[in-house]
Amino acid sequence: MNGEITQLLVQWSEGDAGALDRLAPLVYDELRKLARHHLRQLGEHPTLEPTAVANEAWLRLVKQDQVSLQGRAQFFGLAAKIIRDLLVDDTRRRQRRKREGERVSLSGAEGLSAQPAVDLLALDDALQRLATIKPQHSRIVEMRFFGGLTIAETAEVMGLSHATVERDWSLARAWLYAELAGQT
Predict the structure, then answer these.
(1) pTM of the entire structure?
(2) In this structure, are residues 130 and 176 in contact, taking their beta carbons and an 8 Å threshold?
(3) How far is CA 33 from CA 68, 158, 173, in A?
(4) 81-136 residue pLDDT tens
(5) How far is residue 50's CA from residue 57's CA, in Å, rounded to a whole number?
């Protein structure tokens, strides 16, 4: 199946619109699994469902211009970035509405007070800081955490050795842990 995904991505990158139709059913379930995984990490999420995140991610992926996707890992690396952006944007939008005192019904109010298990905005801010000092480390975290890519897939997408990705992944996690622990 990975070979078929790669072949369809290459065909799509070369302008074959029909390849996109054949690609969708092969990658959509994986996008939904990624979305479900991240929504579970965030805890109770009142405004997003895995299907909605997967749909929006798919729409943004197919609208990409000037992107030549040459394989499954590269595709899901880009998907990782898009899913991260979607979740961060939604979290910011919900927090802005809370600050502005949005009126909600009693049935809708219970979801607004839920605190996510992972502070996505703090993680995003920390990843942005990491990107300024170690862009490669930040991209590895994005691919592994948001994209669900393996070490080998991340190495392939980034053109790095397996050992380099393992080392940078370990260092990035330690840096993020220290950075996020210092914010509490």
Answers:
(1) 0.65
(2) yes
(3) 24, 23, 23
(4) 888 888 888 888 877 777 665 554 434 434 443 444 467 788 888 999 999 999 99
(5) 10
